[in-house]
Write a structure and sequence with these properties.
single chain, alpha/beta, D-Maltodextrin-Binding Protein, domain 2, five-stranded mixed sheet, elongated
Length: 224
């Protein structure tokens, strides 16, 4: 646990609601830290913890790297998918000391069942691809020599090929049940995804005596 400090701004950890938050809590618990609010029954966006020198802010998953990079949070937990997109715009902006090995899934290409994907991705072909993972999708298809028209969407990705908006989608896949329910199949994996601990580089230099113990606590929790 970080030592309590009177009159100082607490260390701020940025988390997103959902799977990342739920799977980060046991790691914090192993470090002796519990959350003072039930996220399901509170609308608070700044949450205190059992450690008076650590608070949690709740932000959208895609915003976690931005809050950390610009110093509004000292640390955060973000998926590799989100970090890949962020790094395309802000290269080398964040320190990533640890893969927390949580919220595992994969970033995949999916198409309607019966669509001949292999025939569609010949050298020089052109596809319409719906995704919010623009950088990853563009680099993946560029490496295959396939031209893509990227259609950026923020939700209901599976709908795009069903109504003729796109030939394929690039999205996160865990169990594949959502794809199956919408008559889509994953045809190619782009990368394996897990969530990383990220740290503001300036904060690590100026507040190392307070941040490093938390990084070390996370590392021990992952190793256990």
């Amino acid at each position: 646990m970080i030592a309590a400090a009177e009159g100082r701004r607490p260390i701020t950890l940025a988390l997103s609601k959902g799977r990342i938050f739920d799977e980060t809590l046991p790691l914090l618990a192993e470090a002796g830290i519990t959350v003072n609010e039930d996220l399901g029954s509170t609308r608070k966006l700044i949450i205190s913890t059992s450690d008076p020198d650590l608070r949690i802010i709740i932000v959208r998953a895609s915003d976690v790297p931005t809050y950390v990079q610009y110093g509004a949070a000292d640390l955060g937990v973000a998926g590799k998918d989100v970090l890949y997109e962020h790094e395309g715009i802000h290269p080398a902006g964040l320190y990533q000391p640890l893969d927390l090995e949580i919220a595992r899934c994969r970033l995949s290409v999916a198409v309607p069942a019966g669509f001949d994907y292999e025939a569609a991705v010949y050298q020089g072909a052109r596809l319409r691809v719906a995704t919010k993972y623009v950088e990853a999708a563009r680099e993946h298809f560029a490496a295959k020599g396939v031209h893509v028209d990227i259609i950026k969407l923020y939700g209901s990705m599976e709908l795009a090929p069903l109504v003729g908006l796109a030939d394929a989608i690039v999205d996160l896949v865990s169990t594949g049940s959502t794809l199956r329910a919408n008559h889509l199949v994953a045809v190619e994996d782009i990368m394996s995804i897990s969530s990383r601990l990220i740290v503001n580089q300036a904060a690590l230099k100026t507040r190392r005596e307070r941040i490093q113990p938390l990084i070390d606590a996370f590392r021990r929790a992952v190793a256990d």
